[in-house]
């Protein structure tokens, strides 16, 4: 029997209705459209409004539509990897809450926390369960309600983040299509530059932590930018080299959407033309775990069977990685 590979067989995404424009942000903090556009490439982002809604609620419409497109029921899913930095609650896992919401009664799952690299880590992890033959349908979800941890008084962070979700279904493939290779990295030395100061077991929530605004994402943007540019480009170049790929062999680069300047640096290092680089940052900003699957969803119609696709991401932790896959449909 031929080797089993893990192919993406369906993708879908969801972005909430509310559009937070640069114009509206410039009424909230000291900033302007020109600064945000030239420094990041972002024009607007989506925000999930309404009481009692979390990351799992972004995932429900995305996955329901994915299942409809694939023509299967939720009960057929074996496993859910829910990649998020903004879980519905500290415990239990959002994967559980979400499985219950969509009726995935036969699935087990867990949350994967790798900040902006989460979806790449999740695809690489899910692929292993398909490759062993143990599972037939693994759902990898990337969802974040970043607006729940963004400080809208901090102009250096509030301008980049937005809310959204994207999901991909992995199934066995016998033609060599799907995930070919991945390189995943992490380095805890990056913690001081991007983290949330309170709310964990080290510093539980208290009046003091709330007064000090420590339940928001803290980022030293310049340092993160420097590491992101170098590491995302390096890991993308490394996966090309070890798979003997030149720029011309790549059909699409799907980069994490944190800053247009980081995307441009990665594409240039890979020697890939602009027309092959997927960018939607101007409409969604940085949706953390959702950036890459939102891109897959929006470009799905342009992909062709056999296309070589490289994903690359960098995020808090630090975490970073790249993944090489052959599109399967
Ligand atoms: O998702 C994965 C991890 N995250 C990232 O990859 C994000 C990486 N970092 C970045 O994208 C950029 O660092 C930011 C977009 C966050 C910030 O851009 P920057 O070019 O690094 O700006 P900066 O923080 O170095 O600030 C430069 C100047 C400062 O003014 P002075 O000190 O030069 O007078 C800031 O106070 O720009 C000022 N500034 C702003 N001005 C207008 C910072 N934020 C704003 C703002 N509007 N929103």
Automatic annotation (TrEMBL):
The active site is at residues 116, 256, 286. It is found in: Cytoplasm. InterPro entries: ACP_syn_III_C (IPR013747), ACP_syn_III_N (IPR013751), FabH (IPR004655), Thiolase-like (IPR016039). GO terms for molecular function: 3-oxoacyl-[acyl-carrier-protein] synthase activity; beta-ketoacyl-acyl-carrier-protein synthase III activity. Residues 240-327 form the Beta-ketoacyl-[acyl-carrier-protein] synthase III C-terminal domain. GO terms for cellular component: cytoplasm. Keywords: Acyltransferase, Cytoplasm, Fatty acid biosynthesis, Fatty acid metabolism, Lipid biosynthesis, Lipid metabolism, Multifunctional enzyme, Transferase. The keyword Lipid biosynthesis applies. Residues 110-188 form the Beta-ketoacyl-[acyl-carrier-protein] synthase III N-terminal domain. Its EC number is 2.3.1.180. Residues 257-261 are annotated as: ACP-binding. One of its GO terms (biological process) is secondary metabolite biosynthetic process. It catalyses: malonyl-[ACP] + acetyl-CoA + H(+) = 3-oxobutanoyl-[ACP] + CO2 + CoA. Pathway: Lipid metabolism; fatty acid biosynthesis. Gene3D superfamilies: 3.40.47.10. Coiled coil: none annotated. NCBIfam families: fabH (TIGR00747), PRK09352.1 (NF006829). Homodimer. The last Arg residue of the ACP-binding site is essential for the weak association between ACP/AcpP and FabH. Catalyzes the condensation reaction of fatty acid synthesis by the addition to an acyl acceptor of two carbons from malonyl-ACP. Catalyzes the first condensation reaction which initiates fatty acid synthesis and may therefore play a role in governing the total rate of fatty acid production. Possesses both acetoacetyl-ACP synthase and acetyl transacylase activities. Its substrate specificity determines the biosynthesis of branched-chain and/or straight-chain of fatty acids. Belongs to the thiolase-like superfamily. FabH family. This is Beta-ketoacyl-[acyl-carrier-protein] synthase III. The lineage of its organism: Bacteria, Pseudomonadati, Bacteroidota, Sphingobacteriia, Sphingobacteriales.
């Amino acid at each position: 029997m031929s080797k089993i590979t893990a192919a993406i067989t369906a993708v879908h995404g969801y972005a909430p209705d509310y559009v937070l424009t640069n114009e509206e942000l410039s009424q909230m903090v000291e900033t302007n459209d020109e600064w945000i556009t030239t420094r990041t490439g972002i024009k607007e982002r989506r925000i999930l409004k309404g009481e009692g809604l979390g990351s799992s609620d972004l995932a429900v419409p995305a996955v329901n539509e994915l299942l409809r497109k694939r023509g299967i029921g939720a009960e057929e899913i074996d496993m859910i990897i829910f990649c998020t930095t903004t879980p519905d609650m500290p415990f239990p896992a959002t994967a559980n809450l979400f499985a219950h919401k969509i009726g995935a009664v036969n699935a087990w799952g867990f949350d994967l926390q790798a900040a902006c690299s989460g979806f790449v880590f999740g695809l690489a992890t899910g692929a292993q369960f398909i490759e062993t033959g143990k599972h037939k349908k693994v759902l990898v979800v990337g969802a974040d309600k970043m607006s729940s941890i963004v400080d809208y008084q901090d102009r250096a962070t509030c301008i980049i983040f937005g809310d959204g979700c994207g999901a991909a279904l992995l199934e066995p493939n016998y033609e060599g299509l799907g995930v070919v290779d991945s390189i995943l990295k992490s380095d805890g030395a990056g913690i001081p530059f991007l983290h949330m100061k309170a709310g964990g077991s080290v510093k539980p929530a208290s009046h003091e932590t709330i007064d000090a605004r420590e339940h928001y994402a803290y980022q030293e943007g310049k340092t993160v930018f420097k590491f992101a540019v170098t590491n995302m480009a390096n890991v993308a170049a490394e996966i090309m080299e070890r798979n003997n790929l030149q720029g011309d062999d790549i059909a699409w680069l799907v980069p994490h959407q944190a800053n247009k300047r980081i995307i441009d640096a990665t594409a240039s290092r890979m020697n890939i033309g602009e027309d092959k680089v997927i960018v939607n940052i101007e409409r969604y900003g940085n949706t953390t775990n959702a950036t890459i699957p939102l891109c897959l969803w929006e470009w799905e119609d342009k992909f062709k069977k056999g296309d070589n696709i490289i994903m690359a991401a960098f995020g808090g932790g630090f975490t970073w990685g790249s993944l090489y896959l052959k599109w399967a449909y």
